[in-house]
Amino acid sequence: MATERRRQQQQHPFQFVQRARGQLNSAKRASKMAPGRQTFGTVLLFFSLCCVTSGVILRTTDKDVWANEFESIELSCLIESISTSNPRIEWKKIKNGAPSYVYFQKKISGDLENRALLREPANLLILNVSRSDSAMYRCEVVAIDDQKSFDEILISLAVRVKPVVPRCSVPNSVTAGSSTELRCMESEGYPLSHYQWFRNNEELPEDPKTSVRFYNSSYIMNAETGSLNFRTARKEDAGKYHCQARNDAGAAKCAPQLMEVYDFDIWMLLLKIVAGVIAFILIIVGLCQAQKHSECFCRDRTENDYKVPQYDSGRDCVSVDEGHFRHKSSFVI
Asked: So where does this one cross the membrane (predicted)?
């Protein structure tokens, strides 16, 4: 009986109140005819009527709502009990602790203007949801004719955002036996994206040891950060790699990029070592020649003093500092 009464109240609250009052009056008249039996029924109806008309009561079908970006979502604010025929309904958006009006004085306002509408009894329908709509929403109902004249419901709305094309970094060439890392990242998706790598359009298992095909591979994949780390690259690891970012709103992937794995070339290594040694020797020889030339020039300047002529193995030097004419050592009068 209580369930049926509640259902009727939700569908026709005002008619239910009038019908309950009529039943109470009928019970009073009947009590005069059969006082003993009707007294209990009168008390029961009076108690039910008091519960119905005690005040405004709200409920919602979902306090934590998720919606995909660019879709529509309806926030439910259902009036379970009310006596006031024309209650005041308001919706507020609370973001970063600051409330702002969404529905006030029977019209939509704020950043939801022209993107939302109120549906009976007090539901808020948001059209073309955007990521900026993620916030707490509060439905408030004021019923001045009710004993409990105010009630409110708080609803959380989170908007899912599809990932954008991730940025992928794949090395062009890798030497067999060396380590290398492939990276994948995007920052627009909400909730945070998880990443999956593919080689030649074949999905790589997160743990290579779980697959016979990839059992000998030495990579470590991190689905949360998007990294694919090869501890020891093998010839079989060569191929076209691409990454996919995915969350509850959708997925996006980058273009495939080729990674080649070359064998270790000992002759090329020796050639590089020899070239490095030759370059080092040439640098040392050049430095020695430059130092020797500098010492010779300085010795020539210090040994050629104009007061005490110096003679050395037939070399004739003239000091650049002399301000007068000097005979050379080979000059004969």
From this structure: 39-58, 266-287
State the residue range of the domain holding 150: 57-160
Between β-strands 116-119 and 73-75, what pairing exists: parallel, antiparallel or unpaired?
Answer: unpaired
For the entire predicted model, the pTM comes to: 0.60
Residue carrying the six token digits 């690891």: 237
Last residue of a domain, one of 262, 288, 306: 262
Query: How far apart are the C-alpha atoms of 3 and 332, rounded to whole Å?
Result: 142
Number of domains forming the structure of the chain: 3
In this structure, the answer to whether residues 94 and 73 fall within a common structural domain is yes
Query: 98 and 172, same structural domain?
Result: no
Answer whether residue 304 is part of any domain. Answer: no
CB 103 within 8 A of CB 113: no
Closest CA to 239 of 166, 165, 173: 173
Cross-strand partners of 184: 168
Q: How far apart are CA 170 and CA 229, in angstroms?
A: 11
Q: What is the pLDDT of residues 89-125, one digit of tens each?
A: 999 999 999 999 999 999 999 999 999 999 988 999 9
CA distances to 2, 177, 268, 270, 274 from 264, in Å = 83, 8, 9, 12, 18
CA–CA gap between residue 97 and residue 44 (Å, rounded): 45
CATH number at residue 61: 2.60.40.10
